[in-house]
Specification:
Arc Repressor Mutant, subunit A, mainly alpha, Tetracycline Repressor, domain 2, elongated
Amino acid sequence: MSGYTDDLSGHVSASVQSGGTRRADAQRNRERILQAARDLVRGPGELKLNAVAKACGIGQGTLYRHFPTREDLLAEVYRHEVEDLVAAAPRLLATHRPLDALAAWFDRVAAYARVKRDVFAAVEAATWRDLAAHSLGPIGEAVEQLLAAGRSAGTVRADAEARDVIVLISWLSRLDDAELDARGPRLLSILVDGLRAEHHWA
């Protein structure tokens, strides 16, 4: 029976192997499409699907199989960025002291803010409102994870709340590229200092 493991040899049939290869190729194509779209999106009307396909070196038919519309692609670019941002919090806490992890995560927030700004400018209002609503919870949980680690270590002020941080970092997505490059690192550094527990200033 083609497509199943041979009970005697334990070998996987060629059809299963080829199916796995196709799935792996499809996943790689999807990741390449998302990265190209992330690099190319620059506000309303400026992301062209043919430009994304060309940047990936794939046919437009392949792109459309993954993302039937421009809006679908942009929405997934944003979701992917949120997933990466949220996943960064526990990784950083595993290798950094809590306050240092928070500062490093804020560096990642600056890149997220740029993608958020460009994607939200390029999609319909109903789409970006839905994206924002669904991303708020996971991002808030990531912030709370970082703050809780800092509070436990005594390096983050006890009254700091995730919502405070989200309100403050949301302004980054309102800055243009020049201002984000010029002011972003300083603003985030000020935010880290504002979250620092008083006895850890020295």
